[in-house]
Protein 1
Amino acid sequence: MDRQKILQLSLLLVVLIIIGRLFWLQVIDSDYKDSARNNALRYMVQYPPRGEVYDRNGEFLVQSTESYDLMVVPRDVKPFDTVFLANTLGVTVDEVRKALDKAKRYSRRRPSMIFKQLPKEVKLKLDERHLVGFYTQYRTSRTYPRKIAGNLLGYINEVDEATIRRDPYYRMGDYIGKSGIEKSYEEYLRGEKGVKVELVDVHGMPQGAYAEGRYDTLPVPGKAITCTIDARLQQLAEELMAGKVGSVVAIEPATGEILVMASSPTYDPDKLVGRGLGNNYMELLHNGRHPLFNRAVMSRYPPGSTFKVVNGLIGLQEGVSHPEDLHPCVGGYPIGRGVKCHNHPSPLNLVQATANSCNAYFCYVLRDIMDNKAYGGITKGGFDKWREYVLSFGFGRKLESDFWDELPGYVPTSEFYDRRYRGSWNSLTVISLAIGQGELGVTPLQVANLGATIANRGYYYIPHVVKKIAGQDSIDARFYRKNYTMVDPKYFDPIVEGMYEAVNVAGTATRFAVPGLDICGKTGTAQNPSGADHSTFLCFAPKDNPKIVVSAYVEHGRWGASVAAPIASLLVEQYLTDTIKRPEMLRQVKEMTIAYPMYDKRNK
């Protein structure tokens, strides 16, 4: 027999064997038919526990707790006790029906999540009844031991369709960070999903792992994050800001780590957890005082008198001003339309003008900067240089912090004034910039960063709220770099001295001195066209080797010394001494409330 016939016979034999095997499986042997009819594969996503968040001292800010989502495969659902399901879930029968209808519209074959974040006791009751087509999916939900820092920490919720289209990691029913740290560090906190493949019978009941679990993958837990926040100080800041609208930011100047970020009014972060999230979110969203709005990074205010120190520093660097220069103040700056000022000694040098927050002094300085002969004595050239200096302090742009919703603030350009005044303007036109008014807009975080820059005598680290991520040697490299201003460090000494005298010698904030702490501060009253002026105070302590910077901003609080200054000084005292020895001031600030007709009217 030749080789060709042998090959043909071999091929024919193989074909006959295959046909025989198929005949056996499809006609004679019923085992596989029964298995296919009675069992199906269910691919169950194994969700990892979300990473927990600690404060700088290792105290829990956010924890993950066991919860369950109720899933349904609509085509598998058999008639069931709707009343039982509704009562067990704590919803109405109508809500159950609507949830099922929504799941059917999405897909009759694919699992849909219809009720989320159920406690374990509800899961056990559902397991006892074995509702066909329904099953529970293990998840974790968030809990907040201290009930603080809602805007800072953020919240999680179900992912939207736009995110699903943009990021293939997410599927319908997944959760994602929606704001705050939860959003900024979502990639680290979420972990990695796993998959469990199991056999289920015709009733949807589990029959064991498929292929002994060979195709399962384990979830990878989210990474724990250590925050820069001091939980005790954050809680005190929120207590001091209760009944007020505004924010407080505290920074460790040597690192740029944010110790406090309190936005007021705030909210209990537990409100945005569980099945009540939707209703609570809408209630907070429509609250006229906007508790979901993080004023520390999203509000743009005039900086007021805290900005005078920037103009003083620019004047020194440009050589148009000297610490010993004296300028008169007779109730204000008298040229042009004038700028009013409060009563204080006159004339004053730079240290005294800073301590007494003299408007006139800094009006003289600003005009000398903008009409500098080095730029031809033309305001536009001097203005452009002034703006360049201001930007180097971190104003007019985002600081590149780890807050996704940080606003850049605003520093006007010469082109802006050209358009507004059709090219006809000069240093008198923009004189309000001398005292932090006019078109200037800053965030409270930027003002706190200014304080850190002064405390460091000329540089700052980008403010950030995460100190450590588990499993990583360091955080983003940008947070370790020094950012220098355009002002030489030697020029900061008279400004620091002026801020020291403002609190400890003879100035606008002497009521808030604390023996031994050497607090350096600058009061500010930011003009407000829609009501009472805003109260602001910027300080750091101690004078040498500063440990903390605090910026407080209270809307409609009137003068800087009225409400912002006591808040900031109490926080400094608590942080540096671990106690407060001014109980009367503490009580007064906590009891102080400020009426806001514009907010309250919206809230009705």
Protein 2
Amino acid sequence: MKSNSKLFSERAVPGAIVLLTVAGLLFCAAAGCSKAENDIQAGRKHDGNSPEASGKKTSVFFKPYVDYPEEGTKAADNSVRNIIISVYGEGSLMETLDMEAGTGASVELEIGREYSFYASANIARDEIPVSEQDLLKTRVSVSSGEPSGGFPMAATGTFSVTEENLTVSVLLQRLYSKIRFRVDFSDVPDLEITSANIRQAANSVLLFGESKAVLTTDGDAASAAELSALNSGSEIGLYLPENCQGVLLPDNDASASKVPDNIPGKADVCSYIEVTGKLNGENSLFGPVTYRFYLGQDTTSDFSVIRNTDNEITLIPSRESISAPTWQVDSKDVYGKMPVLTISQHQYYFIDEDGIETHLMPETELRLQWHKLFATDDYYIAIAESPGGYDPDNIFDEMMSTMVARSEDGKTWEEIGKFRATDIAYGNGTYIITSGKNRYRISIGGKLWNALSADAEMEIVTYGNGIFMGFGDDYYSYTSEDGIEWTKAGYIGLSPGKVVEAAYVNGEFVCITWNSKIARSKDNGKTWTITQSNVYWRPSVDLYSIELTYGNGIYLLSAYEGLFYSTDGNTWANVPGIGNGNCFGYSIDYKDGVFSVAFNEILNNSIYVRVFTSLNGRDWTQIYDYNCNVPTMGIRIAR
């Protein structure tokens, strides 16, 4: 999540529409003007007693004017066609003046009395209420977008006639707020804006007082020329009528919570901006995305759009926010399409936009089955075994029936060694490969490997929170900081069964066990909490066919015959729409906010490999499929 609170604190002034740091986005706002006041005491009540009426009258001249920034201002912002000024004394209508733009008008008023005036411009008013209280209730219909021929304006104030030939200046205020809007594409350069709209704009405004919408409609929208300007990094202007809904979430301190579900009864009368766009794949993401954010005087609680303010809002979309769809960042139809690497029994496939590269893995004459693929920042590592099995206690048999290979680019492979390998972990520059026996391999940098002995027959190993953690047949967890010295950490227990997958995710170590139980530890394996999964995964075909990953708030688990997801790591559900009864060999990966899954499907006596991606682990898009006629057992998003 990006932050720019310093810019906000230095530039924002009262009266601005501000929105900052919402759901992985940053909105920087600053106002050029706040709510204006009429000069010559207009708009201010007198603190002292009103002077005594003399009975003598004098001419009072009303001088209307507007004052709006010239830079970036459209001519219509300052356009005035007609002005009506009503003068009230002691709550009753005294005089009404109807004048043209650029002129003033005079009226005879009694010296020594206090009066109120109410001015409107660019508004047709057939009747002026006799009662001042009735006038204050007056609402006028307004255009949902930028008005043609001039903005509706209003002004009100009080004055005392204490001298002859008094001039009262009337500063007209627009009933609209102006938003100078732009988009910063720094983090998502492949985003193209396709629309920018004001949603839920007020369709009427209280003429002489703070106004909140009663009914709303779609508001101003960017034109084709303005969209082109947005996509080039330029600023555009959007207009919306005043809508002062006020503080609706007084206890809220999270910008991500400023959403419709938290303001029932008011969600359809608060104004917001909606921006749509599409991702074109420069960062491997494709599809439509929609950004929405409520307007207001702060990022968390206030929903007021104030008339006659000039505001700047910069939308800075982040790639991070696209990976976690919300109302504010609706990216549920965005999908990832990037190069992937898969391995089958005897060969590998490197798939990208240019097609599929198919190559044989090393030592294929031994007919080894490459059944698991790992990836670190520097290397891919693949593990193979003989499909017929072998005697792990016979070193010669093991050397003829196993292999571990390494690749820097996923295309050119070299043999690491001929030894049994059950799992691999990487951390702090060190690689560890377990063998399920009392020996394991270790490498600093991944090029030179040494065989070491261990006190336990570790089959599963992972890295997280600064330590390696291994698991074996004795149902204990073992930890090491350097991969050389190991310590027995904690007893998981016989009941959970054998650990078949482990990972450090979401701030804890999580183990998947043989009998569909979950073991979790927050203290580096010293104590474990065991829960029974509500679904059954079957690792019996291949003990190491289970994989666990985590991202975007979702746990994703692949077993030989299915794909499962969970939001808490305890309660699991089958991923809908992925696979069927003819599918097997699921393998998963997660990188840069994107999940990927590959699995095999038997169709018309052939084996097809399907590759899907997802941002949230639940909604998936197929990006590749191919006929390989041999099962694929590993996938990794190309590093």
Protein 3
Amino acid sequence: MEVKQTDHVVLGIMAHADAGKTTLTEAILYETGAIRSFGRVDHKDCFLDNDDMERSRGITIFSKQAQFELEAYNGAGQERKRYCCTLVDTPGHVDFTPEMERAMSVMDAAVLVVSGTDGVQGHTETIWRLLARYQIPVVLFLNKMDRDTLGRHELLKQMRGRLSEQIVDFSGAGAYGEAVNNNKNEKDRETSGNDEILEEISLCDEELMEHFLEEDYSREDWISAVRKLFAERKIFPCFTGSALQRQGVGALLAGLSGLMPDCRYPMEGAFSGRVYKILHDAQGERLTFFKVTGGSLKVKDVVSYGEPLKEEKINQLRLYHGGRFQTVSQAVPGMICAASGLSQTRPGDGLGADRTECVYDTEPVLTAAAMVPEDCDEKKLLGLFRLLEEEEPALKVYRDDQLKEIQVHIMGPIQLEILKYQFETRFGLKQEFGPCRILYKETISGKVVGSGHYEPLRHYAEAHLLMEPLPAGSGIRTDNVCSTDVLDLNFQRLILTHVTEREHRGVLTGAPVTDVKFTLLTGRSHLKHTEGGDFREAVYRAVRHGLMQAREKGEAVLLEPWYEFTLTVPSGDIGRAMSDIQKRNGHFEPFELDGEMAVLKGDGPAACFMDYPMEIAAYTGGRGNIQFIMSGYRPCHNAEEVIEASGYRPEQDLANPAGSVFCSHGAGYVVPWQEAAAKMHCDLPDTLT
């Protein structure tokens, strides 16, 4: 039968730490002939974990890609095709979740690895939610099943309870796996095991249930139906085995070859792509990793991206396979490439015809101050952090002018260790950090109108914004009710751009503002004197003016991050655990017994639980553990204490003024925020006056 190569697809692989993801990646590449030898984590010779820090720690830190081919089964008598797969290996440690999420934005399907010795972990649930957010079809692989495990049926029950009821055990899918793997015999070879699997599959779809009961579907019909359900995320096939022993890997690949969704990106038309990673190679070359989602791209083509729109020429296109790459002259749909020549791209940017921007969910909850090394000045250090921030945008590096220190946002202490390693190996600097601190946020609990006026000599802009609280986790949103009779549309758009172009600092601790809706009410420009940047000044002052009013009314709210947790301790220690949680301002549900262990689920402020894992290990003799999932921000449990400790004085924050600038007798003068509203030039809508 003829085999025709037609599609490029991106397959992600992910797991919680120590589930065996890297070993499974190695096994997949070895079984498909993409690598010649089978490496091991403990031997420090894995193909994709080629960074010295990854090999020494035995964990994946940076997402990487490799190429392998997978022959697909399209039905009896039909032409078969070979998928050219880009396998994207992602970090499993919770500190590197942002790196994993960015890679998800370019995946066509994913393999989620669950350890047979540990079962579903807290981070597994985080990964599952992110996969749902990006609507990625998922195959599960129960790994380490050669050991003394919880048992396949118990693990499946746990996964269905904590992940999805539509997880179907494919580990005994004899005829299905055989058919999609090599199609040697076109005659049905149904077994009782397959009947059981078909019944499970049919429970996921009413139409399939009818066909199952009527027994009117052929094997080809079932294969086609399963592919459709998989692509629509209505079924999640699960395979079992041991990656280290390479058991079950062949069955997983056979299943993937029959499940792989058709990635029908348009071959013709304008080029479009999606950026998911920025790196600098050993020579300092800036590389933009992207997926082609339409058309094609050639070397020396000019690519547009960003806001405001930028256009730059592609100097080189690279196709990476582990630490090696080959240059290609053209990138086609479905392909993951690295391009040189693009100087200002960011993860999440759309390229070419794709003008959308991907906004990521995962964000750090900790911050740390960077100490300035003796052999480096602050300006140079800030520049180096900016370079790392290009590669890891979640760092959100900034200089705190009040504290006179460089701050970086981090997910956890392991990430700090990696930053130290990067500074030493890449820049030759011994970089140290202060203690980790909680990253707070601020919002408002009532409506206010923020007004900003900027009118030094030969400048003019005024903006009025209605600020309203939004539900937790909403972020910043904008709306516009301003009439074009009052203010030109281009200025209205400019105002809303200035609202969202940066993080605004709150007035309680200087923390970022979130969960606020800004509605442009009205504004004013001057035909002669309004210049670029005037509305930026007016908008920033309007936002600050509104926040100061909220504080005066007692409606400024400090938010802190909360964790959901799963705490496992010996049953004899459950009383101590419940008492600890209450002391730490947490809540919990009734505990469950699992053999000699007790399992307690609940939530609490991240600040109260930062040091608790070490305490659990101490009082349980190392038998207890706790798994955290970030559950969002809530009002701070000790707001007054945190506000006082921050020492933040909004009136002294000269970089974020709340007052407005007016003009009198040819000179500008500053009006304090308390008096500014009375001097504004615009008339507010009647409902707000």
Protein 4
Amino acid sequence: MHLGVLAPAARAYQAAGLCVLPARMPEKRPAVGTWKDYQSRLPTAAEVEAWFANSHPACCLICGAVSGNLELIDFDCAGEAFTAWSTLVNAEVPGLLDRLVVETSPSGGWHVVYRCTEPVCGNLKLAQRREDLDSPAEVMRFGKSYKPRKDRDGRWHIVLTMIETRGEGGLFLCAPSTGYQLMQGEFTALPVLTAAERDVLLRCAWAINAILPEPVDPQPGVVVDGERPGDDFNRRADFGALLQHHGWSLAHDGANQHWCRPGKMNSTSATLKDGVLYVFSSNAAPFEPSRAYSPFAAYALLEHHGDFQAAATELRRSGYGAAPQPVGDVDLSGLLPAATAPLLTFDLQTFAETPEREIAWLWPGVMPRGMLSLIGGKQGLGKSFLICDLAARVSAGQSMPDGTIHPPGKVLLLAREDDASCVLLPRLRAAKADLSRVCWSVFANTATGSPIDLAAHVHLLVEATTARAFDLIVVDTFAAFAPAGTDANAAQDVRLLLDALTRLARQTGAAVVVVAHLRKTGQGDGDPMDAIAGSAQMTAGVRVATMLDKGMQDGERWFRVVKSNLGKIDENGWTWRFHWPDPFTDGASDVPRIVWAVAGEDYASLDANRQAGTPTVDPSAIQEALAEVLAKGPRSLRAACDLVVATVRKANPRLRKGDVELAIDGLIEDRDGGVEAWEGPRGMRMVGLPGSQVESPEDKALRLAHENPDLSVRELMALAGCRTTTASEALRMAKSATGKANA
């Protein structure tokens, strides 16, 4: 593209309030490095001028709120559905199509662009079709490569997307980029559609859709008279009555019904066709956009918060799969036709009739399949490195630390605390993982960016695990995936989440591992099981619990099983160290990998001493050295420990740093130990001699304000050395307290 055409257009787009960026044609992505920042702010005129002063083949527009609720409807497959869609739009609202901005793309497709008075959701697939094939060989369609998949009947096929949107978080290349040509309207004069007008455009696209995904329907294996309650419900229930009971309304009737979510009027949030509800709206909780739901799946979400086991049990008690029976306040009469089959109250069977099965292990003694296990450890010990190492071993079929060999498996990392691109990926690569077998997710609503309730939406994990056949699922960490409002110290809250993860393990057969932090008071004062943060249900609810701890030598980590309901515990466990690659033999890398070893018998005695509170070093020597270190003033706990180790090792060269840390923890816990600890800047733990804690500017401002509420903000700032906002808030609180006292 000639610079004289692209640069003026980009300047005009920026002036019109559109987020315009230079783009690369082959990748169809911005040519500005990282562009996440521009999803929330417009580029400045100076930025646009600088970018397009250079030669670029294309420009792109960022959709969503940043560009005034900009949305694009993309007609792919050489635009084969554009004529049919246009006909439907013109028939329903004559003249609407003439207001839109329309352009063609290099592949023969069409772009329809507009703004909306209300926020637009993320990208949506609106219309798809299926093409059956004779073999699994890859095929080319409209310049793209497709790998066929098998359906439940064993037929090879591909799914082609004819119409989709680009909304919040999306982007598209546009004219005057090479190969793009405006056919109607201008981007600098985009029409602004009402929500109802936008709904017409989307609804006409949905009407062309020729294929729906398999509905979400993971059911527990509860069978009554040869039929699961959910299957019976899918066959007999009035789906429309269920939706109306929960506030949905029928917007358009017919073979392909259009339904509107609660809180909206005369718009399409989902379609109901052939007993399958396909949801489009990103605000139709508890349903997710671009997903299909059977009647049973919808019932479980709407009536039982996604607990499929509870839903199946209730349906069975209400007569699905058996005779109907009134139960409590539950009234399914509107959904349930009369039945006369006998009702079974309990699934009772003797142990003589119960088939016995052996425990399946992913890592014998450590990670059972189909069950829940736990890894606990302090922050900073390397738990994320550990799970990356284990994920790599499972994915690549490497031997486990105990030498166990297994075939390569698939892994799902639910990791919210570490960035996937710059943290987890390099660590997995350093551990020689098969990256094609390791998936990751922050388990969030991709349309809104909000976290999903792990307990209420565990069926989504069941669905993903069933489809991908994951062998290992790691939740890192338990606290990071707990829904808002969860009390980690409340047994009921913790048990709810653990039960959901247990169902995930049982229904899929995967080994589910939960990572948990330790209590702030440390783990050296008793049973390591008591060190796991939160309710005791954290350890009671898992079948195997392991602990990551500091080893006896500097840089060494100790990993061992501390609880098992499934067999004998190896008291020694394993140790590991970080190994930094040799640039001449292993290639240059800034990320270490883990090297394992078997822990010696002295580790079992060390653990026994820790649980019994037996000191492994001379506490008086530690106390004396610590007092000398802190005589010059408070220090961070880490720095104080390093200085104490350097001092005491002169007399005891074999002293272990981990033992020094435990001894200092003991002195802090002991009120007569002559050491105080407090939280310093940025959460750093500080230690010092009694009375050495420095008063923070915030505390000093509050104290001075209470002593003299008549101080001005400027005077208080000078006295306390604090910021304006801190001084203002302190004076406000002081004057408020004085007023209450006078009253």
